[in-house]
Amino acid sequence: MxxxxxxxxxxxGHEVVKTVLAAEDMELVAVLDHEPSEKxxxxxxxxxxxxxxxxxxxxxxxKAAEPECVVDFTTPKVGYxxxxxxxENGVRAVVGTTxxxxxxxxxxxxxxxxKKTGAIIAPNFxxxxxxxxxxxxxxxxxxPNVEIIELHHDQKLDxxxxxxxxxxxxxxxxxxxxxxxxxxxxxxxxxxxxxxxxGMRIHSVRLPGLVAHQEVIFGAKGQGLxxxxxxxxxxxxxxxxxxxxxxxxxxxxxxxxLENILD
Length: 263
Description:
- By secondary structure, the chain is of the alpha/beta class.
- It has helices at 11-22, 58-65, 76-88, 102-115, 127-140, 162-174, 238-248, and strands spanning 2-6, 27-32, 54-55, 69-72, 92-95, 119-121, 146-152, 195-197, 200-206, 212-220, 223-231, 254-256.
- A seven-stranded parallel sheet has the order 3-2-1-4-5-6-12, with helices on both faces.
- α1 (11-22) crosses α7 and α5 (127-140) runs parallel beside α6 (162-174).
């Protein structure tokens, strides 16, 4: 499968490039970066032995390299535009860029279906994180009092994380909708109670040294339950990325969430 990687200079993109190179059934045909100074990936020290063209424009890359699938790990500012361009060209997509809205997701799904093109957008590609979300969804039925704490490196641009938002959405499907905390509680410092989603609270931590971590804390009379997942290295996401690249070849629509393609 001919694969292109968008955002190859980022830490996640770097790992995706290595994953594609290591896969016997994949060929890296192009990479993309915002206003690159390089013409070829071999100008980057870590990939000096390769011969892969570098592009600064998605449309130009799709036309010249003709990839069968594009993996996008960029920024919320361009992730939606990139994904739309990829799908409109009838090319399969695997997207880990977060910040895509519900309305944009619906539009992208309609494009994918009109083009009969497979795409997977996932807020988290770590299998352990997906299991964490599924466990939390099940627990929310019995423990409606719950808060989410997500912790990421200090270069992450969006808050809350896509994983935290997806977790809250999944729990809302099984959880009795209640408003948490004391009636009439007051934030003496705005934002102290975190963001609110369907009565639940989401707290975002940004610190150097972290990668991607999340805990879902449930409370009930006389007991508590904490479900936590930690990604200590970006390698943790790569098995899910590789699985998604292969899975897009079997799809004719857009799938949101890695949990929807796991057996």
